[in-house]
Each structure stands twice: as C-alpha cells, then as structure tokens.
Design brief:
Blueprint: H1 9-19, H2 29-41, E1 45-48, E2 54-58, E3 70-75, E4 97-100, E5 103-106, H3 113-127, E6 136-141, H4 149-152, E7 163-166, E8 174-179, E9 181-190, E10 193-195, E11 200-208, E12 213-214, H5 226-238, E13 244-250, E14 256-257, E15 261-268, H6 272-289, E16 298-303, E17 309-311, H7 313-325, E18 329-333, E19 341-353, E20 357-366, H8 369-385, E21 389-392, H9 406-419, E22 424-428, H10 433-440, E23 445-448, E24 453-454, E25 462-464, H11 465-480
Parallel strand pairs: 3-6, 3-7, 7-23, 8-22
Antiparallel strand pairs: 1-2, 2-6, 4-5, 5-25, 9-20, 9-21, 10-17, 11-15, 11-16, 12-14, 13-15, 18-19, 19-20, 24-25
Bound molecules: zinc ion.
Zinc ion binds near residues 114, 115 and 168.
C-alpha cells in the first residue's frame, strides 16, 4: 500500500507531491514556487506578498456566487526534526513516507503533516471540478512554526473574505474557536556588590525534579514552579534570621514552567539549623499541595565556602519579596468555554547578568486583550513596589471565542449530520496564526479543524489516515452550506 492508493486520491496525491518539496521554516522559496506554478497550471489567479505568503483565488461554482467568501488557510513550512542516526537534508531531500496500519509516517524525520495536509486539502479544493462552493481564497502562510512571522507580516488585503477556515488543527472531531494572545513582562533589579560576611554559614539551596511543562497548554495543571518554591523558602527563612544572597538562578525559557532553581545563601552561624528545618517544613507542605506528577520534587541544601561578594541586603530582600509576591498560574477561566483557561501568567526565569543586574522574565497569556494587559500591569506593579525596572513587550494578539459564530453553528450542524455525534468545541491557551488574522480583519468569522496528527514536531509525527477522509467529507459538505452574504 502506497500513498497513491489511499482515498480520497485527490488530497493524498497532492500531499504526496508536497512531501517531495523541501519547506523548512524560513526557507519556503521552493514550496512558494510550487504553489505559484500550481496556480498557473490550473488557470487560477495567485499573488504573493513580501513575507512570501501566497493566495490563490477560485471563483464560485455556478449558482453559488452569492455565498460568503471562504479563506482556506494553511501554513507551508514544517518543523525539521530527525533521528540522530538518519542521514537527511531537509533543504533538498523529499520526505520518505510509509504507511503503517492506519497511520502515515516518515522514515526517521518529521512528516510535515503539520501542516502539509492542510496545504493539500486547500489545493484539492482549488482543482476539484466536483465540489460546490462560493468564492474561495486559499491562503498559504510562511514560517508559522518559528514565531508566526508570515501571518504577522501578512498583507491585510489577503484577508478580504468573510469566513476563515484554519486547516492546522491536530485532533479530528475538535473545532478550535479561540486562542490566547501573549506578551512578556521583564523586571530588572540592579544591585550593589557587597563583601559577603565570611563568618556566616553559606549554603546552596536547590529545587529540582519538578515536571515542568508548557506555560500555555500545561498551566491549568497547577504544576510546581521552581522559582516560586525557591522564593517561598527564602522568604520563610528570612523571617527566621537575616539572610544574604550571593547567587540566584531559576528557570529557562519564557514559555516553560520552571523545573529547577537555586540560590547561594548566607545565614548567621547561630541560625544554621534553621536552613534545613525550614526546608524540611516546606518539603512536607509541598507534598500535600502539589499534583501527583510533581511529588518527586527535591529540595536540597549543601554547605559551600563563603563567596567573596554578595548582593546588597536591600536588593536581595526586594528580590525575594517580589518573587514571592509575583502571580503565577491561572488568573481567570473562560465564561464562554467552561473548563478553558482565559488568562494566565508564568514566572519563567530569574537570571543574574553582567553589570549587577538580575533579570526576572514573566509571560502573560489571554484570549482577552484587556485581561492580558491587566495581568502584565499587575506583574509590573509588583516589580515597581520592589524597586525594579519593568518593561512589557508588545506581544501578539489572541482570538476570543465567539459563541454566536455563524461558521461554528454551520460546522456543528454539518458534522452532526455526517457523523451522528457532536464535535468537541475547544479554545487553546497558546498562540495561533488566527489571532493575527483577527487583528488584521476583525470581521472574520473563524474556525480551525483538521485530521488527527500525533507526535507533531518530532520524528514520531504521524497522520491518522481514516481521519483525513472524514475531514475531507466534512470540508466538502461545509463549503456547500456556507451562509449567503
Ligand atoms: Zn502547524
């Protein structure tokens, strides 16, 4: 069994062609040329913008001219990951696909089903002579995977439609109707270097063995944040005895929940035992507070030689108070989508830098712009109280779920008619290209759906073959039933 034997042959044949065209993120020249040639060969009007985003227009089929214009949107780039024992050049080599039961896979590399199958579906609709539909704009964006830069730079004239179907979801049976926007807020502490008291007990405290996770899709799990745990310990200890900080470090990426944090701390010799007593108390408390997957958390202290220098006492105290006071986790739940996080903030990292600076990075997300901004302001207020300089990035916009969306209601009705069950309606707490589209054309009515892809962004990526046929049947039926203008 090969790809060309799969049904529906139109979409699979096109997917097969696309897998032969190299298309790493930021190197989309070949696939863009492929799309423009494709449009030309089929007598369709095409345009590209400066970011190499492409649109191809197809007029309505006879009798359907009055329907709303549908933008079929997919991204052309793919994540390029391979197993270390595989020789493969993503800039020149075609993806080697094979069928394993109900799954299409690639030999040791990412498959590029994300979002090659979306591209293939759009092309199939463009060339089909059988489907009935209103006016179609197929929109192909670049560089989705490394920061949505194609969508961000998209020519707004490419979004002159009424409905946008995003073809980049990875769970068949789910309709995504919202996503979060995000921004980072960074606090910078400037400290004086002071002589470290040599007659103190000096030790390193380490928080480790937390699970960590994505600050968007995992934030509702209430996982432990190593930065917060470290701050809680240092605060508790500072209430027992004067403490001096000489080093602090925690977390890493702005979009990850911190798994590890550490600090080098001095405490008067007479209070030495309090360092381990407070640690044991905290460890016991955490085991009753943290979710099961985080109960392997380790809190350790190890004595160390006295450092030459330490952070001045006032800045050290302000830093501990700020880290303890800074919010982290879910800030609000969606009213329209029960069980979905609307707003969150992540206390991502604490890093010592040159010039006596300590940089604290935080990251806010929300599908509601005002809630995102208010949370960033709350974080800024804590930094200001602690005497730190604070700055928020512009960030990227979200897509707030619209319970009155016409395309959602039509999609639900078509899905139920075809499959005799209800689809799952979800909103994700992470960024999607749709947020940027909504910002450029606020009138767009949008929905996202796709066939099932597992293991995306890794060599385990696989596409569930039967879901492609169902998705295709759904798209064909949906296009027929688009509301009139
Ligand atoms: Zn994708």
């Amino acid at each position: 069994m090969e790809i060309k034997d799969l049904k529906p042959s139109l979409i699979w044949g096109l997917f097969d062609q696309i897998t032969a065209v190299p298309r790493p993120s930021k190197k989309e020249g070949k696939i863009v040329a492929f799309l423009l040639d494709f449009a030309k060969a089929h007598g369709l009007e095409a345009e590209k913008d400066e970011a190499l985003n492409v649109i191809i227009r197809k007029p309505a089929t006879p009798g359907k001219e009055q329907l709303q214009t549908v933008i079929l949107q997919s991204h052309v780039d793919m994540v390029c990951e391979k197993n270390s024992d595989v020789q493969f050049n993503f800039e020149t080599d075609p993806i080697q696909t094979y069928i394993d039961g109900e799954w299409l896979k690639a030999k040791g590399t990412t498959l590029g089903g994300d979002d090659g199958i979306g591209v293939a579906a759009a092309l199939a609709i463009l060339v089909s002579k059988e489907i009935e539909h209103g006016p179609i704009i197929a929109l192909f964006t670049t560089d989705e995977e490394t920061g949505l830069t194609g969508a961000n730079a998209l020519n707004p004239a490419f979004l002159q439609g009424d409905i946008l179907l995003n073809l980049d979801s990875e769970e068949w049976g789910e309709f995504c109707v919202g996503c979060a926007g995000g921004k980072n807020t960074i606090g910078t502490f400037t400290y004086q270097l002071e002589t470290a008291p040599p007659d103190y007990f000096w030790f390193e405290v380490q928080i480790s063995n937390l699970k960590g996770g994505h600050s968007g899709s995992d934030i509702h799990k209430e996982l432990g944040n190593a930065n917060k745990i470290l701050a809680r310990y240092l605060y508790a200890l500072s209430q027992q005895a004067p403490i001096v900080l000489s080093k602090i470090d925690g977390g890493n990426l702005h979009n990850a929940i911190a798994r590890e944090a550490s600090a080098t701390v001095g405490i008067p010799i007479a209070s030495k035992e309090k360092a381990s007593v407070q640690l044991n108390l905290l460890q016991a408390d955490l085991l009753t507070e943290l979710p099961a997957e985080d109960r392997k958390v380790q809190l350790n202290i190890q004595s160390t030689t006295a450092p030459a220098h330490a952070i001045d006492a006032k800045t050290g105290t302000n830093l501990i108070l700020a880290l303890y006071a800074l919010p982290h986790g879910v800030m609000g739940w969606s009213f329209d989508m029960p069980g979905t996080v609307e707003t969150s903030t992540n206390l991502a990292s604490v890093k010592m830098k040159e010039d006596h600076k300590i940089v604290v990075t935080t990251s806010q997300r929300s599908s509601t712009a005002s809630a995102k901004n208010s949370t960033a302001n709350m974080v800024t207020a804590v930094f200001k109280l602690a005497g730190a300089a604070a700055k928020s990035s512009d960030g990227y916009p979200g897509w707030k779920p619209n319970p009155d969306s016409a395309i959602l209601h039509v999609s639900e009705a078509v899905f139920e008619r075809l499959f005799h069950k209800k689809p799952l309606i979800i909103s994700i707490h992470a960024g999607l290209e749709c947020g940027l589209f909504k910002e450029k054309n606020p009138k767009l009515d949008m929905i996202s759906c796709g066939p099932t892809i597992m293991g995306a962004h890794s060599p385990e990526e696989r596409l569930e073959i039967p879901t492609v046929e169902k998705w295709w049947a759904f798209l064909v039926e949906l296009l027929k039933n688009i509301p009139a203008k």
